[in-house]
Amino acid sequence: MKPPRDKRRDRRPQKAAQARHARPEAAAPRPKPSQPEAEPQARRVLARRPGALPAERLPLILEVEPNADYALLDSGNGRKLEQYGPYRIERPEGQAIWQPALGEAEWARADAIFTGDTDEEGMGRWRFPREPLGETWPMKHDGIDYLGRFTSFRHVGVFPEQGSHWSHMEGLIRGARRPVKVLNLFGYTGVASLVAARAGAEVTHVDASRKAIGWARENQELARLQDKPIRWICEDAMKFVEREERRGNRYDIILFDPPAYGRGPKGEVWQLFDDLPAMADICRSILTPKPLAVVLTAYSIRASFFAIHALMRDTFAGMGGRVESGELIIREKSAGRALSTSLFSRWVAA
Ligand SMILES: C[S@@+](CC[C@H](N)C(=O)[O-])C[C@H]1O[C@@H](n2cnc3c(N)ncnc32)[C@H](O)[C@@H]1O
To answer: Do 101 and 227 lie in a common domain?
Structure first.
């Protein structure tokens, strides 16, 4: 008998809940009024998975320290000052409720400041106090070349805190000593996909934004990793995993870093609180018989990492391994304060 089907539709509250880890939507904005509303999609009916819960490790705080490619130089007064390769960049940071440790002269040396004071697309929301800058600039992550980018959503083409997950994933791929398939959902500009490909994995990268996929492809060229097997797919992440499940395609590592709210290319609605349980469940069922890890990051939501920890432990019941959960933080260079960026929970096989 077919299970009853629920609908995946827009149940967004009128006023967005105030989030603890604010990362405004990156690259798949709400559709313009002319864009058609997608047909509501069927939602998976979930049952609790049987079997022993995986071991647990929490809280686990994964930290990015200042390095040659990226540093959080200082923070305070609702702002943060960061070094992205050659540029010093100042942006709003709601959590920085303390006072800056560096003096005004240091902050005045910023090359770019996000003002956000117009509705313009592109770079119009940035101010360049020293000299006009181009939209992109060369960046590196652990030897991988890619482009930093001034976007209208205040983002700069990379989320440095994700570096902790990327090095962990790289270790798993190299340590496996066998072909490894990685699925990077909500993959944005693709740095994680490039790290995985360089480590020898076969990568499938999915994002709803055609623009972001274009940027990710550009990054692949810049990183000189064109000969590595990466499939770039512009699609709604939920639709994609549902199809992979039906087709029997399987992965050893899955990364998913969904926004609180997003849209697929055909207007499909992604609502984290409604859709995350089903996506986690499908991710479990599209794992190979010898999977390595499933890594979830969440931000801009009003929740504790205990919530996603419980979801991931329940989801991976009966699979052994361990669920590790906590926060991704960036350690500031000036006074050593920790800036929390997101929650995470990951299931690891060993
Ligand atoms: C914050 S970014 C992920 C960042 C990425 N983990 C990284 O570190 O570079 C969120 C991404 O989700 C994408 N997105 C939003 N809704 C989506 C959907 N329904 N299906 C697929 N991708 C979606 C956006 O286009 C955006 O690139």
So the answer is: no
